[in-house]
Specification:
The complex is a heterodimer of chains A (386) and B (329). Chain A has helices spanning 2-5, 10-23, 35-43, 46-49, 63-66, 69-79, 102-107, 118-127, 144-157, 171-180, 193-199, 204-211, 222-238, 257-266, 296-299, 315-319, 343-346, 351-358, and strands spanning 28-34, 54-61, 84-88, 111-114, 132-139, 162-169, 188-192, 215-218, 243-245, 267-274, 278-287. Chain A is an alpha/beta fold and 386 residues long. A six-stranded mixed sheet of chain A has the order 4-3-5-6-11-10, sandwiched between helices. A five-stranded parallel sheet of chain A has the order 2-1-7-8-9. Chain B has 329 residues and is an alpha+beta fold. Chain B contains nine helices and 14 strands. Chain B has helices spanning 8-22, 25-28, 62-75, 96-113, 168-177, 194-203, 217-229, 244-253, 275-283, and strands at 34-38, 41-50, 56-57, 60-61, 80-91, 116-125, 133-142, 159-162, 209-211, 232-236, 267-270, 292-298, 305-308, 314-317. Chain B has a seven-stranded mixed sheet with strand order 9-11-8-12-10-13-14. In chain B, strands 1-2-7-5-6 form a five-stranded mixed sheet, covered by helices on one side. In chain B, strands 3-4 form a two-stranded antiparallel ribbon. The chains are: A alpha/beta (386), B alpha+beta (329). The interface between A and B is large, with 68 and 85 residues.
């Protein structure tokens, strides 16, 4: 894919880095909102290449990380039912609930399946009219339209064995919450390009104006991220605070009208709890009255499940950019991808997991014997789809 | 399932359960095959079970894997693979035509690899107690004089060479298993590597380490070697031979090609003085036409694998925990 190669060009990257270096005169703290951007920054070593004045703070934009423990526990309760086929994106399977994860439920006989799209779950509902098919609808504005489409289709087809367990969240209220936190250090935002490709940029000028922060809509390839940083630093150095679209090949100001009208029809804005952060007003979606019959939480009566977050985990502070993962005393010791205390260590997009995987240049590799002779089940890069 | 993924959980299962149960100095070497002293000869001995789904996929089948996998495990100790056993566990109700296709594929793969299937066994389990067909093969081969290939022999300065494009098998399986289309059909790279290894040994018997990066991919294999020999591995990201189709599929699914399975590739650690000649011999061989130098062993960060990224940063490549899971966005 030559198109992508161009966004990894080391020569162009050096030019952008030189320009950032030439522009910056004092320390600035930028937050990249999206977990996909965090992953790309760490994977390509972008933060190591920036001048030390530019600090990147990793934001709350990993949908897996911010799904509350309580919602995971509801998912586990539903997935364990014998009449249910529980469908989820792959990276939710290892996120620990209070006492187990979806992998464990699957191991205990639950019919848990990894799908790549909610429409796959819809197809399963058509194939298995005698089973209840539940799709775990998590994520930001990026994934919500397809989930809305799935439930819209289910109603159109009269599929009453399909439902969604919804935990959708929205970026702008999270930015608002971060900016109004007393300890906030963020001076500029790299907004999530994929979110804006759906929603457009109309929600951001007000945020930029009220909090006097530049908001640069940024993509995910290394050069996209460097360009986003370059533009944000440029604004900060000039004392500006505008919304700037540095990802025009995917983002239009008006967003994606078809996706927006689907969201409008199926969902309504609601308060949502964020893992590690707490309740943020109007920060998510729930199914609207017209689609309430497709809400798995009501259908399986799990609304009463209440769960407290573990106190030792500081994922909430990581998600708000208040601390770096390595500042948490549990990081790399009691909290590892093997024994995650919080979702930031579970998800490959979580800041803690990214630091653990890519940045442990000091000390020894984690213990582990040399691996055995290989049996050939090519399952390691697969999802154990039943 | 994670315990079968070839990552840290698999290693723990061996360490905590199997090693205490029947541990011995031969097993403790933890190579892809055991090297035994028997009747004056050095024999490589290996066994492996194959449980792939679907049974047939672009580029091969369970039968091809069952032969090539064990042949390659033998070859990774420098042995010339010679004889295999084949044990089938069939699920009640499986079509005989399916078993026939797998057996024929095994016959053809054995012929291509220059090995003889010398003994076998068949069991049938009740419907619902298996997954159609499981095959277990074991194999033996003779290790030539003067050859000592083990994961413990990697040294700082060694060149790290991979024999061709990575990730093809895993992506081929994924595309058929999940019904995902990646624009072009991607075929598994399943192939026997005994002959390629012989060609490399003809250049120099002093190859330090060979590994076929199957489950867990190149990332898992390199971590195992780094830990076994206490050296660091430094890779150059831009040198990694990731085919466009694999890169696209992995990009789409949020997977890392370094952890995707291969079935017809090897990674070799060779002394720097021999690297060029070994590379040349590999490239002259049909199974090594795409061979490239991807990095070297270093004395820094012992037991760790580090990639120099295309932009000039670095990142650690860890041993994967269990399966890689597709990311949400």
């Amino acid at each position: 894919m030559k198109y992508i190669d161009e966004f990894n060009d080391p020569g162009l990257a050096r030019r952008l880095l030189d320009e950032i270096r030439a522009t910056v005169t004092r320390p600035w703290a930028l937050m990249e909102v999206c977990g996909g951007q965090t992953h790309s920054i760490i994977r390509h070593g972008i933060d190591q290449l920036l001048p030390e004045e530019v600090e990147l703070i990793h934001g709350p934009g990993c949908p897996v990380c911010v799904t509350p423990l309580e919602v995971i526990d509801k998912a586990l309760a539903i997935a364990a039912r014998p009449d249910v086929i529980f469908c989820s994106f792959g990276d939710m399977l290892r996120v620990p609930g209070t006492d187990r994860d979806l992998f464990r439920v699957k191991g205990e006989g639950g019919d848990v399946r990894v799908v790549y799209s909610p429409l796959d779950a819809l197809r399963l509902a058509r194939q298995h009219p005698d089973r209840q098919v539940v799709f775990f609808a998590i994520g930001f504005e990026t994934t919500a339209p397809a989930n809305a489409m799935a439930v819209h289709q289910a109603r159109r087809l009269g599929l009453d064995n399909f439902s969604l367990l919804v935990s959708h969240v929205r970026v702008p209220p999270a930015i608002e919450a971060i900016m109004t936190a007393p300890a906030c250090r963020v001076q500029g935002f790299l907004a999530a390009g994929h979110v804006c490709s759906v929603m457009g940029t109309a929600e951001y000028p007000d945020l930029a104006e009220r909090h006097r922060v530049p908001i640069v809509v940024t993509g995910f390839e290394p050069l996209d991220i460097l360009e986003g940083i370059r533009r944000a630093v440029h604004q900060l150095e000039r004392g500006e605070h505008r919304v700037d679209n540095a990802y025009p090949r995917a983002v239009r100001e008006a967003g994606n009208p078809a996706a927006l009208s689907m969201l409008e029809e199926v969902f309504e804005v609601a308060d949502r709890a964020w893992r590690g952060i707490g309740r943020i007003p109007a920060s998510g979606w729930r199914l609207s009255d017209a689609y309430r019959a497709y809400d798995a939480e009501h259908r399986f009566d799990v609304g009463g499940i209440r769960t407290e977050e573990p106190a030792v985990c500081r994922a909430g502070e990581v998600l708000q950019g208040l601390i770096k993962p390595t500042e948490c005393s549990a990081f790399g010791t009691t909290c590892t991808p093997r024994t995650p205390l919080g979702a930031t260590m579970v998800s490959s997009e979580g800041a803690c997991a990214a630091y653990y995987l890519y940045r442990r240049m000091t000390g020894q590799a984690s213990p582990g014997a040399p691996a055995p002779q290989g049996s050939r089940i090519p399952q390691e890069e697969m999802n154990p789809v039943g | 399932m994670g315990h079968g993924g070839g990552g840290a959980l698999s290693a723990e299962l061996i360490q905590d359960v199997f090693a205490p149960a029947y541990g011995n100095p031969v097993l403790a070497a933890m190579g892809d095959s055991a090297v035994l002293h028997l009747g004056g000869a050095r024999l490589a001995f290996s066994t492996d079970s194959y449980v792939v789904r679907p049974l047939f996929f672009p580029g091969g089948s369970l039968g091809d894997l069952a032969v090539n996998g064990t042949v390659n495990d033998l070859a990774m100790s420098g042995a010339r693979p010679a004889y295999l056993s084949a044990a089938f566990v069939l699920e009640e109700g499986v079509e005989l035509t399916v078993v026939d296709r797998i057996a024929r594929a095994m016959g053809a793969a054995a012929e291509a690899a220059g090995v003889t299937v010398a003994t076998g066994d068949t069991k049938v389990v009740e419907a619902g107690h298996g997954d159609g067909v499981y095959v277990t093969t074991a194999g033996v081969g003779v290790v030539p004089e003067g050859v000592d290939i083990r994961p413990q022999r990697a040294r700082p300065g060694d060149a790290v060479i991979v024999s061709g494009p990575i990730g093809l098998h895993g992506v081929a399986i994924m595309s058929v298993r999940e019904g995902l289309e990646f624009g072009v059909e991607i075929a598994s790279d399943t192939a026997p590597l005994g002959d390629l290894v012989a060609a490399m040994l003809a250049v120099t018997p002093d190859i330090h380490v060979l590994r076929d990066p199957t489950r867990g991919g190149l990332g898992a294999s390199l971590n195992e070697i780094a830990r076994a020999s206490g050296i660091g591995v430094r890779l150059r990201e831009r040198a990694l031979p990731v085919p466009e189709a694999v890169a696209n599929a992995c990009g789409f699914l949020g997977l890392d090609p370094l952890y995707v399975a291969n079935e017809g590739r090897l990674v070799a650690f060779v002394p720097p003085t021999e690297a060029e000649a070994v590379l040349e011999a590999m490239r002259a061989h049909p199974q090594g036409g795409g061979a490239v130098l991807i990095g070297e062993c270093v004395a820094d960060h012992p037991g760790m694998v580090v990639v120099a990224t295309g932009l000039g940063g670095t990142r650690v490549v860890d041993l994967p925990l269990g399966e890689q899971l597709p990311r949400i966005c």
